[in-house]
Amino acid sequence: MFDFAISIAVIHHLSTSARRIQAIKAVLDTLKHSIGQALFFVWALEQKSSRRGWDKGDDQDQLVPWVLKLDKNKKSEEKPTTHHRYYHLYKQDELEQDIRAAGGEIVRNGYDRDNWWCVARKLE
Predict the structure, then answer these.
(1) Nearest to 12 by CA among 116, 119, 110
(2) Average pLDDT for the chain
(3) CA atoms within 13 A on the CB side of 81
(4) In this predicted structure, what is the pLDDT of residue 69?
(5) Which helix (H) or strand (E) is 95 found in, with range?
(6) pTM reported for the whole predicted model
(7) pLDDT at residue 124, rounded to an integer
(8) In terms of CATH architecture, what is 4-122?
């Protein structure tokens, strides 16, 4: 059992609400009763001022390109490869709802650099 656990940029890659809640529950289950806490960071839907520009009204489920760049030291005719990663963009208060559904309680929460975050603990 742990005093503190961190989940940064993980939960938003799971494709269903049930899987996200199950993952949150699994993290909470690793905590010591009454004192253990966990920090969760997920991408926010509300990123209007970022380079991505997502905001309310946009699809919460996105495939985001990730370019695998080539090794500059190796001479090759190959071109960079683009992979698409799945993201569920959390809307305001959605992470808190998922934590509660997983049996957790919110200790504190906020928004930072296009991410929603929560510190939570497992309910007794």
Answers:
(1) 116
(2) 94
(3) 6
(4) 80
(5) helix 94-101
(6) 0.90
(7) 79
(8) 3-Layer(aba) Sandwich (3.40)
- Tokens standing for 97? 């709802």
Q: Residue 79 pairs with which residues in a beta bridge?
A: none
Compute the CA torsion angle 37, 88, 20, 100 (nearest 10 deg).
60
Residue boundaries of the structural domains of the chain: 4-122
Distance set, CA 12 to CA 1, 50, 90 (Å): 24, 18, 7
pLDDT at 68 over 90: no
Closest by CA to 107, choosing from 47, 2, 34, 45, is 34
CA nearest 54: which of 97, 21, 87?
87
pLDDT above 80: residue 3: yes
